[in-house]
Amino acid sequence: MDKNNTHSKRSRMIQQLLSLVMGLLLIFLLWQTGHWSRQLALENLQQQSQHQLRLFVANLQGELQKYEFLPELLATNSLLINFLHNPNDVKSINALNRYLETINEVANASDTYLMNAEGWTIAASNWLSERPFIGRNFAYRPYFQEAMQGKLGRYFALGSTSNKRGYYFAYPVKDDSGILGAVVIKIELQGFEQSWRELKEEFAVTDPDGVIFISTKDEWRYKSLYPLDQAVINRVQDSKRYGKAEIGTLNVSQKDQLTEQAKVVNIGDPRQSDHLMLVREMPEAGWKVHIFSSLGVVNSQVLKSLLITTIVYVAIVFLFFYFIQRSRRLKERERYEKRAKRVLEQRVKERTADLTSANIRLLREIEEHRRTDETLRKTQDELIQAAKMAALGQLSSGINHELNQPLAAIRSYADNARAYLVRDRKDDASWNLEQIAELTERMATISRQLKVFSRKTTGQLVTVSLQAVIDNAMKIVGPQLKDTETDFRRIVPADDIYVQADMIQLEQVLVNLITNAVHAVEQQSERWIQLMVSTDNGKASIQILDNGPGIAFENLDQIFDPFFTTKSEDRGLGLGLSISYRIVEMMHGTLTADNHDSGGAVFTLLLDLAVLDENKLTQSAMIE
Ligand code: ADP
């Protein structure tokens, strides 16, 4: 029990430790994956943004370059030079205005105008519009000042009259006498902004002060990326570059510097997603072009990677645990099967041992039985022999009597015959000799009886004549019957009856039964014994009745037991009936005892009738 507890505690601890390790590993993996995928996504985004920015800048430069040369070209025109020399020439003013208007239209510019050396606009393409530039002074504009210095002036500003954002190119108009004025072309970049608005990236072009003046996002316009000093704001506002527009700030804060040109920034609101900001300079214009790409795509990329990593990790962990569990279950099953096998083997062993011992016991018992059987058989043979000897003993007095009498008679007849011969009385001698012959015949009969009795049994069942058996038995018991003056009644069918039997043993049985009957009737004043033979249903029935006292009811069950006797020691051993019973049993017959109505005993012997075969009738013949 304790061992189990410690074991389960230990495995729980191992499981907890394993879970902790797995958890830590997952965190580490997610962190790594997050880092890598962010790096990768940022690099991708950076590349894309760089590409877009390059396009944007190229596009913007292209747009500007389209007009860059135009003021220089116009400045060479004598119309302009002449007019600057004679500004009051009314004739040529209209022609000049019309010329500028045409040029403006053809170039698709916003405005084209001519300024004198004091900064006054003296001719303009919009001379017919509601608010023409003519008569207005733009001397404060840097492009004019640059042109008056003999350079190509460039400037971006909100038109003070049109209130439209424009880019100005100004070029000095000069002749040998020097710079007479400046010709200016203003272009609008609204259309350009419009065409870039459809992209998901945002663009912002800042002036050297960091103020956005071109942007795909309207609300960013006129805002600085970073907070500006008040002095700078004042300066910008004083320059009227952006008219009366308030200069605000986007308040861009840097979060990560990826490269010199690339930063991760937040645009004014930490709640909004960060942006990747790339910068590219346009030195000729003194501008910086910024592209802002939302990191939303990076974040979703990172999120996707984290999700995939988690799923893959969970799947691996699940598989790992599944295989561990499976191998544990397999081991468990193996253990269980081994145990079951062991138990089974043990049981088989036990059973085999049981069987073996039972077998040994059985063999021993069989051996014992065999020995007992042998002993029994021997004992039985001995008993039969003993019974024979007993019968012989019983007979001996009779035999003595039977033999001594004729012997004595023979002696006296022989003496008589000799005497008669001596006296030559041949007839008398002959009569005496005849008597001797008769007596020897009688003695031969007695000896034949003894011979029959001592003959060894074959134990084999053969067809025997019942009459012959009865005759033989009678020869043995005859003297007894005669001595005791017992009436013997023999009721036998006229035709001979054949049974399956061992002749000698059957004689033995009959001798036993008749001898018992003789003993039973001894005390009766009138003594009779009756032997009845009949056949029925394939059986021969031999019944021996007497008029003795019969068998006591309580003895009926025991009389066939060996050594059961009611007689005195010198008269009976109690073996006769038990031997007879065995003998009859061996001949497949039955022997039963009862009392008949007149009171005496009746013994019934049933034997199988033999199927008659002449060749087998030899035994009865032999006896005779
Ligand atoms: P034994 O004759 O030596 O006693 P048996 O086995 O032949 O042995 O007989 C057993 C007993 O059966 C006898 O002692 C006797 O009591 C009884 N018995 C046998 N035959 C008769 C009979 N015809 N009438 C009465 N009793 C008998």
TrEMBL record:
The EC number of this protein is: 2.7.13.3
User: What keywords sit in the KW lines?
Assistant: ATP-binding, Cell inner membrane, Cell membrane, Kinase, Membrane, Nucleotide-binding, Phosphoprotein, Transferase, Transmembrane, Transmembrane helix, Two-component regulatory system
Membrane-crossing ranges are 302-324
Subcellular compartments:
Cell inner membrane
As for membrane topology, the entry says:
Multi-pass membrane protein
GO CC entries: plasma membrane
Q: This protein is called what? A: C4-dicarboxylate transport sensor protein DctB
Which Gene3D superfamilies does UniProt cross-reference here?
1.10.287.130, 6.10.250.3020, Histidine kinase-like ATPase, C-terminal domain, PAS domain
Q: Which SUPFAM superfamilies match?
A: ATPase domain of HSP90 chaperone/DNA topoisomerase II/histidine kinase, Homodimeric domain of signal transducing histidine kinase, Sensory domain-like
Q: Which GO terms describe its molecular function?
A: ATP binding; phosphorelay sensor kinase activity
Read off the InterPro entries from this record.
Answer: dCache_1 (IPR033479), HATPase_C_sf (IPR036890), HATPase_dom (IPR003594), His_kinase_dom (IPR005467), HisK_dim/P_dom (IPR003661), HisK_dim/P_sf (IPR036097), Sensor-like_sf (IPR029151), Sig_transdc_His_kin-like_C (IPR004358)
**Mitochondrion as UniProt keyword:** no
User: In what residue span(s) does the Histidine kinase domain sit?
Assistant: 398-611
What's one Pfam family the UniProt record gives for this protein?
HisKA
Glycoprotein keyword on record? no
Name the chemical reaction catalysed here: ATP + protein L-histidine = ADP + protein N-phospho-L-histidine
Coiled-coil parts of chain: none
